[in-house]
Amino acid sequence: MTATALLTDGSLVTVRELGPGDVTALLQLHRSLPLEDQYLRFFSTSPRQLEDFVERMVSPEEPRHVVIGAMRGDRLLGAASYVVVGESDGAEVALVVSHAEQTHGVGTLLLEHLVSLARGRGIRRFTAEVLAINFRMLRVFTDMGLVWTVVADGDVVHVDLGLDPCERYLEAVAEREQVAEAASLSHVLRPGSIAVVGASRSPDSVGHAVLRNLVEGAFTGDLYAVNPHAKSVANVDCYASVTELPEAPELAVVCVPAKAVPRVADECGRRGVRALVVISSGVNPAELLRIVRTHGMRLVGPNCLGVSTSSPAVRMNATFSAHSTLAGDIGLVTQSGGIAIAVQEELRRLGLGLSNLVSTGDKLDISSNDLLMWWGQDPQTRMIALYLESFGNPRKFARLAREIAAHKPVLAIRAASSEAGQRAAASHTASTATPSVTRDALFRQAGVIAVDGVPELVDVVMALSWQPVPGGRSVAVLSNAGGLGVLAADACVREGLHLAELSGETLKSLRELLPAAASVQNPIDTTAAVDEQTFARCLDLVGADPAVDAVITVTVPTALGDPTTGVHRVDGTPVLAVRTGQTERLADEVPCYAEPARAAAALARLAERAEWLGRPREFADLGGIDLATAEEIVRRQGDGWLPPDEVVRLLKAFSLPVLGGTLVTTAEHAVAAQRAYDAPVALKAVADDLLHKSKGGGVVLGISDEAGVAEAFRGFRERFGDRLRGVFVQPMAAGGRELLVGVATDEKFGPLLVTGLGGVDTDLIDDRAAALAPLSTTDADALVHGFRSAGRVLADVDAQAVRDVLLRVAELAAALPEVVELDINPLVVTDTGCLVVDARVRVARPHRTDPFLRQLRTP
Length: 859
Fold this sequence. Notes:
Blueprint: E1 2-6, E2 12-17, H1 23-31, H2 35-42, H3 50-57, E3 65-72, E4 75-84, E5 90-97, H4 106-120, E6 125-131, H5 135-143, E7 148-153, E8 156-162, H6 167-189, E9 193-197, H7 206-216, E10 222-226, E11 232-233, E12 236-239, E13 251-254, H8 261-271, E14 275-278, H9 285-295, E15 298-300, E16 306-309, E17 316-319, E18 327-334, H10 337-349, E19 354-359, H11 368-376, E20 383-387, H12 394-405, E21 410-413, H13 428-432, H14 435-446, E22 449-451, H15 454-466, E23 474-479, H16 482-494, E24 498-499, H17 504-513, E25 524-525, H18 532-544, E26 550-555, E27 575-579, E28 584-585, E29 591-593, H19 596-613, H20 627-636, E30 640-641, H21 644-653, E31 662-664, H22 667-677, E32 681-687, E33 699-703, H23 706-720, E34 724-731, E35 737-746, E36 750-757, H24 761-764, E37 768-772, H25 777-784, H26 790-793, H27 796-815, E38 819-830, E39 833-836, E40 839-843
Parallel strand pairs: 5-6, 9-10, 9-13, 10-12, 13-14, 14-15, 18-19, 18-20, 20-21, 21-22, 23-24, 23-25, 23-26, 26-27, 27-29
Antiparallel strand pairs: 1-2, 2-3, 3-4, 4-5, 6-8, 7-8, 11-12, 16-17, 16-19, 28-29, 30-40, 31-34, 32-33, 32-34, 35-36, 35-38, 36-37, 38-39, 38-40
Helix pairs in contact: 6-11, 8-9, 10-15, 11-12, 12-14, 15-19, 16-19, 17-18, 20-21, 22-23, 25-27
């Protein structure tokens, strides 16, 4: 294993497994320890046979010994090791860190990587013996966040660490990562000095534009230009190369031709530059990343617009945008420079500004996950907007976004939503799991507000910036133009909102206030004769009605006046205005939209956020799970579909309500099975390449006599020949509503659960809902009610039974990464509960990754 990761001071180290070639470095590390550190590590100030000990640690002939180290260049900063104890799944752990590096998080980083490595190799527990006076080591174990126990025994403390990645552990890892990322990204977003490399004298060049924007924006730090053919550009003195600069700039913005980028990047690294923004496109990505990692730099780009920070303490516009960024509280990250400019210009027109703009381009290094960690702790950023064309680590993204969205709105423009990326799949579930379905499930569960373009993004940002979220989905429409009010009402219904039933008191007050020709029923038509004061009074009345969660006003100017000027804020109730043809901010910070549909869509996104904020994220404590049996089943099975009897065993290990059956290979055994059930049976062929049994003629239902069973068996033998591996005999299930429940596992996103109409309806009606595991109880409830016909086909008692099935299937998928596809179809729902009538499970050796491990991308 080899990884690059950040320490708490923002510097980079390489974490890798050590071998025989590292003996000298390990000896130097141990011998450099002060006497006190040697005593705490070895319980002695003069450890005996240190050479033998170190050689044994890294010897390939000692497979029970595993050692990893943190390297900066050729220097070993620290090492963590474990030794497997006996034949158990436990190991004794040890840690040593250079005295000079003991405050930079080297120890916890090494232990995190050692824990991940050990879990992947079947280790479930670490033990250690620590001197009671070794407070630093005990603090390291405490800070890890793992479930641990300690037993004091005189001067020694016995420590026992469970390695399962519990929630507390993941939170602790995330906190450490956020500290390290903030220190690292400060070189990009709050640099004290910048050099623009490739600052051309030509006004229409990118390098000139970047330098000019930095000068005109009054960057607060030291600014340098690198151009060997000019003495100055934009009144900034030029230097022939980075090596000739009077100091090492904290950030270098590289605008040279692609072929020159690696050389310039290497010069920057040797000079001591901490971060690069590479504007140039067409760069060799592997070569650039290798250079960046070698010198411990961070990188934005290549092929990007640049970065900006509007804080008065920085005032950095290191982009080639035509206009400067207004100071504001929105953090914007996009892979597309064009999207960045479009969003920036729209926000600028409305008087909204950005705290930071980061165009990641090809995102070789810094990505949206890095920026989420920065903005999560940045007090100047109140809202986050994203444009993502791909996910590097979607599971980490989901965790970060969920945590941040609880305090700051996170919005994302959906991209690449077509079905062109759909992969071929054998199961109904896998064929449903297109990239867009998976991405939308991630956004929905993480509380990310998903929109479909720049205009919708700006519409929602306007509403979030100036209005509170609604307490519900009841809307009042107030208009001086009846037809437009009807359009607004229709738009609300299309967006899942509903029109509020106004109270009798509100209706009475409106009648007293408005002309006789007015309609006071929602949508309210004040008529064109009302003035702005009357309209404002109507808004106060409607906004104060307890049944109203939000108000949409729709106004047009007439010869009698313009009631738009009467639209104002209402305490506690969001107000969104519509004025045909205009998108703007009204005087009292009320967002105004060009048409009713846009206002309704923005309000619906606010309602979704309010509902997400109000949902508890709790996980059910499921009982009756025999994980050991389940692991044994998938471990014994090679890649492919499990036999039906093994599927039954696997599902029963998670206490799923399985109908069961008997797998037979002869007609006589099939007859015996039917006789044992003493009831009508179904026969299902188990044959090579027969996945959809009903379509392939592999199912015969309702056989009630022995002759019928024998005949059905012979029919399968004639139809499938040598492909027939057996026949599964099941008792007939009672009738009920048939559902589909399934899992498709994506290497990056993890398991996706799908549910919807099952049985024959599966192929006829595309009505399904999806969510990513792990499932909270709220996620499961949303999934149960998420497909369109759920309210029609499931009663409350049915929903509870289906919910339990979904939670158990999600637990199975999360616990067994070997299960890459699972189809339960049908799941029969009756008055007494659920029954799994038929199921298929495909197993494959997983490519094990740890999505929450602290590591950066490597070449």
